[in-house]
Design goal:
Elements lengths: L1 E7 L5 H11 L2 E4 H8 L5 H10 L12 H8 L3 H29 L4 E5 L3 H5 L6 E6 L2 H10 L5 H9 L4 H6 L3 E4 L4 H17 L1
Parallel strand pairs: 1-3, 1-4, 2-3, 4-5
Function: Catalyzes the phosphorylation of the 3'-hydroxyl group of dephosphocoenzyme A to form coenzyme A.
Protein name: Dephospho-CoA kinase
Catalytic activity: 3'-dephospho-CoA + ATP = ADP + CoA + H(+)
């Protein structure tokens, strides 16, 4: 099994690359989806988050009120660190379970871990390759505002809450420049797949 970490800042085009690699045959393990799964209604993780940040972050239906939690942690590094200390260990366990499941199903599987917080949480894991999706901060902020409808300030807070591009690029084995056209991004993803699948 080949284990590839795919990371990038918010709105860097990471999901586009992951979808293309999935079309080519990669097994995608999505860290954001795992986060949602491990903090589902009734989960120990959600209970711990409620204890740490207050009952008001639990919605009436028992699910996490993401907007309420986001208001408490974005722009507040110490609160974000507190949240990560609750969530990251559970994500690590569940992601490893999914890696093992993919390997058991196909010993030659290419598993791509789509993980925004690689530098913050998982950089020292034994990856076969670290791929960084990269677009300049100004372009990512524009995408958040124009494509996701985020207010300018909220977009900047989301970007500021992540590590710098410099730190992300410093760990990259492969950088996919997503600042051009969609076709250019997909062509780079295809080239990456050729490299992985023939090695």
């Amino acid at each position: 099994m080949a284990l590839i970490a795919l990371t990038g800042g918010i709105a860097s085009g990471k999901s586009t690359i992951a979808r293309r690699l999935a079309e080519r045959g990669a097994v995608i393990v999505d860290a954001d989806q795992i986060v949602r799964d491990v903090q589902g209604p009734g989960s120990p993780v959600l209970a711990a988050i409620g204890e740490a940040f207050g009952a008001e972050i639990i919605a009436a239906d028992g699910s996490l009120d993401r907007a309420a939690l986001g208001a408490k942690v974005f722009g507040h590094p110490e609160q974000l660190a507190r949240l990560n200390a609750i969530v990251h260990p559970a994500v690590r366990i569940e992601s490893q379970r999914r890696f093992d499941e993919a390997a058991a199903a196909h010993s030659d599987a290419v598993v791509v871990y789509d993980v925004p917080l690689l530098v913050e949480a998982r950089v020292d894991d034994p990856w076969d390759l670290i791929v960084v999706a990269h677009a300049p901060v100004e372009e990512r902020r524009r995408r958040l505002v124009e494509l996701r409808g985020m207010p300018e300030r909220a977009a900047q807070e989301r970007i500021d809450a992540q590590v710098s591009d410099e730190r992300r690029l410093a760990i990259a084995d492969v950088v996919i420049d997503t600042s051009g056209s969609l076709e250019q991004t997909l062509a780079q993803a295809d080239a990456l797949w050729e490299r992985i699948s023939t090695s």
